[in-house]
Predict the structure.
Amino acid sequence: MINKKPNSPFNLLLNKSIIEILDGDKDFGEVSFRSCQSIIKVSMPYLSGPTICDISSRFGLAASYSWGGGSKSRWSYLDDLLKYCIDNNRISDLLSFLFSKEQFVDKLKGCSPPDIEKAHAMIIEKVLEHINSILYFGGNELRIAGKQFQIRPMGSAIAVAAPAVKTIDRSYIRDLGERAVKDIDEKNYDSAITKSRTMLEEVFCYVIEKKNEVPSNSGDIVKLYNQVKTLYSMHQDGGTDKRINMLLSGLEKIVTAITQMRNEGSDSHGVGLKRVNIKDYHALLAVNAATTMADFILSVGESASNNQRMNN
């Protein structure tokens, strides 16, 4: 019987099927990249018993592996670590560690840097998708907001995303956009809308963190955009050319529209909720609009960083 600390939504992770995903026991197919030396299993890195004990020690939980037999199972060790981190409010830190690129060194060795980025993002996306397929029946999902992991009711917060710790650049935007277009080609319009929101949210969080600020964790992507506008002085005002103000107003409408499309039509919700009748051209419009806006916001962030370096 699992002894759960009350009131923490992360207790939902104390599920053997989820733990078997996190410790690398379950894989979800294979992918290959031209630069990689071998086919890559779509799974979390395999965590041996001693490795889990080492991670436990890193996070302050004393654990030792018994080599002489009679040791606990790997999933039991990880279950203990998850419960410890939940009790000590370090579960988001643990998940960030497990999902970080550094933990995938052995799995992705021999690949080129661009393919490492793509493979890592693809694996994390697929792993989160399967964890959320388990959480779905309770109306919850695991999400990433900036560098923080959250479990929240479906539709109340941020889209499931790729890794928490990474650099957001035009290659990332282009790759996520291409995957969204592939979803459209496969008639998976809901997934394309989800990726559109993910793209905007991750770029917003990235440029906010570049200002050494913490992104809003309210789950409201409009609040994230407002935070970006404040930090980068993007507010519409009388001193700005009216045509620029019109463009900025259009950006706000893109954020609002994609947010509403995802809230009512994306793959993060059940069929009982109100659905948007999305056509392929609607989904393509959303993806292209999100890509354009993400590229613009990234440019704003880069320009501010360059100006700061020049002034120092």
Notes: The beta strands are 30-31, 40-41, 140-145, 148-153. The longest helix spans residues 280-311.
